[in-house]
């Protein structure tokens, strides 16, 4: 709502500059020429005559309107009031190595995804490799979803729970897929079977 | 240190005028007041509660750039979620006596009516094709290609078109 009326407010705030105190208009400059203590009156009346209330003039310069979707969460201040934001440990294992590993897995999935379409299905070893890479890729993806939506500073306990829950899930799914790969025909052949059924 | 500023006016202000200089230029004094760390922190917490809350995604104009990015994560969640559900179900199947062998699954899927089969295939094929093609786009970005706003929008729409077409093709196989 506020965003709809804001341009109008801004235009009105810039309109009629003669009424504004610090503008270079005639009224303001004449008021400043006779700037004794007793001549403060015309200045104040110029302010009072301004068409818009003060709150509206301030609102016109705000970038976003106040749109409350949810109330703010309880605030927590770590350390003392004047502490700077903590900088994470600059270990490459948390940054660039992890990033490179992610890309290697993702890039490795490209030929393994195309191959079954070209060859019909995959041999057991390649199929197992595809399965393992998809599992790792999924694990990394779920991890980044948790990191994005469960921030540590707000919900440290829930974050820990989700991360360990994901580790457990990936482990169990990995065992399940190992069972499937060893007892059944493999993922690509199984998908082909079901797809053409 | 955190302190409350309290400007004094009127009688209190006049009482501190002692030197002739002060009488020439009226002076305001600020009285500070020490308070315990906890009380100061409480004030800060209360002030922070008055800060504006950042608005939800609804305020942004729908654009292929960020809609495509959101769709990338949604399709990924569908694919990986399904993958995890299947892997876990296969692991616990013996406990409940389920038969999740590929033969059995193919048989029960084959017995479904044609529109349901095509619909199910479409629901799985679109996330697969979109996420695969968009993944290639991401890898190109990682190598530094196609970063201009125009290129991102063009490849974004191309990915949507290609994935809809290819998933329709896969669904009717």
TrEMBL record, chain A:
The lineage of its organism: Eukaryota, Fungi, Dikarya, Ascomycota, Pezizomycotina. It comes from Coniosporium apollinis. This is Succinate dehydrogenase [ubiquinone] cytochrome b small subunit. It is found in: Mitochondrion inner membrane. Signal peptide: none annotated. Belongs to the CybS family. Keywords: Membrane, Mitochondrion, Mitochondrion inner membrane, Transit peptide, Transmembrane, Transmembrane helix, Transport. InterPro entries: CybS (IPR007992), SQR/QFR_C/D (IPR034804). It is a multi-pass membrane protein. SUPFAM superfamilies: Fumarate reductase respiratory complex transmembrane subunits.
UniProtKB/TrEMBL annotation, chain B:
The chain crosses the membrane at residues 74-98. It is a multi-pass membrane protein. It comes from the Eukaryota. Keywords: Heme, Iron, Membrane, Metal-binding, Transmembrane, Transmembrane helix. The keyword Transmembrane helix applies. The keyword Transmembrane applies. InterPro entries: SQR/QFR_C/D (IPR034804), Succ_DH_cyt_bsu_CS (IPR018495), Succ_DH_cytb556 (IPR014314), SuccDH_FuR_B_TM-su (IPR000701). It is found in: Membrane. PANTHER family: SUCCINATE DEHYDROGENASE CYTOCHROME B560 SUBUNIT, SUCCINATE DEHYDROGENASE CYTOCHROME B560 SUBUNIT, MITOCHONDRIAL. This is Succinate dehydrogenase (Ubiquinone) cytochrome b560 subunit. It comes from Coniosporium apollinis. The lineage of its organism: Eukaryota, Fungi, Dikarya, Ascomycota, Pezizomycotina.
């Amino acid at each position: 709502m506020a965003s709809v009326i804001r341009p109008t407010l801004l235009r009105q705030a810039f309109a009629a500059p003669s009424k504004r105190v610090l503008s270079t208009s005639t009224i303001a400059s004449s008021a400043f020429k006779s700037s004794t203590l007793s001549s403060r009156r015309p200045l104040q009346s110029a302010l009072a005559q301004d068409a818009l209330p003060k709150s509206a003039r301030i609102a016109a310069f705000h970038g976003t309107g106040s749109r409350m979707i949810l109330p703010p969460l309880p605030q927590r201040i770590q350390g003392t009031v004047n502490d700077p934001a903590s900088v994470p440990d600059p270990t490459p294992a948390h940054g660039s190595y992890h990033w490179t590993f992610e890309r290697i897995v993702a890039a490795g999935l490209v030929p393994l995804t195309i191959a079954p379409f070209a060859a019909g299905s995959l041999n057991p070893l390649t199929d197992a490799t595809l399965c393992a890479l998809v599992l790792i890729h999924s694990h990394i993806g779920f991890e980044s979803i948790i990191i994005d939506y469960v921030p540590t500073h707000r919900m440290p306990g829930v974050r820990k729970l989700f991360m360990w829950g994901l580790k457990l899930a990936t482990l169990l799914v990995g065992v399940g897929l190992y069972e499937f790969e060893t007892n059944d025909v493999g993922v690509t052949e199984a998908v082909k079977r079901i797809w053409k059924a | 240190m955190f302190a409350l500023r309290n400007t004094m006016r009127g009688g209190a202000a006049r009482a501190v005028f002692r030197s002739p200089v002060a009488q020439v230029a009226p002076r305001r004094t600020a009285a500070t007041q020490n308070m315990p760390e906890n009380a100061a922190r409480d004030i800060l917490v209360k002030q922070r509660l008055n800060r504006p809350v950042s608005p939800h995604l609804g305020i942004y104009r729908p654009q292929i750039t960020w809609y495509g990015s959101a769709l990338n994560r949604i399709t990924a969640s569908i694919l990986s979620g399904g993958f995890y559900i299947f892997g876990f179900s296969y692991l616990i199947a013996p406990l409940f006596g389920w038969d999740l062998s590929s033969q059995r699954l193919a048989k029960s899927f084959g017995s479904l009516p044609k529109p349901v089969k095509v619909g199910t295939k479409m629901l799985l094929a679109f996330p697969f094709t979109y996420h695969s093609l968009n993944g290639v786009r991401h890898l190109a970005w990682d190598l530094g290609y196609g970063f201009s706003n125009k290129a991102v929008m063009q490849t974004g729409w191309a990915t949507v078109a290609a994935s809809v077409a290819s998933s329709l093709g896969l669904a009717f196989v």
